[in-house]
Design a protein that fits this description.
Layout: H1 9-23, H2 28-33, E1 39-42, E2 45-50, E3 62-67, H3 74-85, H4 109-122, H5 134-145, H6 150-157, H7 162-172
Antiparallel strand pairs: 1-2, 2-3
Helix pairs in contact: 1-3, 1-5, 5-7
Amino acid sequence: MVATAPDKLAGLRDRALLLIGFGGALRRSELVALDVADIEETATGLLVTIRGSKTDQERAGVAIAIARGDVACPAKALSEWLTAAGIETGPIFRPIDKAGTVRASRLTCRSVANIVKAYAARAGLDAGAFSGHSLRAGFLTSAAGKGASIFKMMDVSRHKSVDTLRGYVRDAELFKDHAGAGLL
C-alpha cells in the first residue's frame, strides 16, 4: 500500500501514517493523538510513547518500540514527512488543505480510516475490507504468520489478554500444521 503513495506532501504524510500505524500495531485514536514529543528516534527504530488508549483510560502511558524496516522504514518515512511539512512540535498527523497548507490541527480517526481505505484501493485491494483497525490487525496477523512470540506481539499491541490476541494468531495460522495436510 505504501508503495502507491505519491511523492507529494499528502503522500509523505500518508506513508508515515501507514507505516507508524502498522509498525506499532496502533489504534487509529492512538495514531492521531501522537505528538512530535512522543517520538524518540534510536539506531534501531523509534521509541513511541502512547499517552493514553482504549485500555489505558487512566492515561498512565506506555512506550513501545517500532523497528526500522528494510523494505519500508517507519523512522525514515516519519522523518521525511516531518521535514517536508515543517513540523517541529505538536501533532504529527495533520490535515492538508486544498492549497497544500499543513494545518495545525490533528487528523481525525475517520480520516485515518479513509486513508487506509484509499491506499488499499490504490494497491488493487477491496477497500471495503479495510478500516482504520486494519493497520493494527495487519501487524498482528503478519507477526503471527512470521512466527513471532505471542508475548512479543503483546509488547507492541499492549493486549492485556492472550485470549483477545489469539483471534489474530488463529487467522494467521489456519493452515499451519493443518491436520489434513498431505491427506488429499
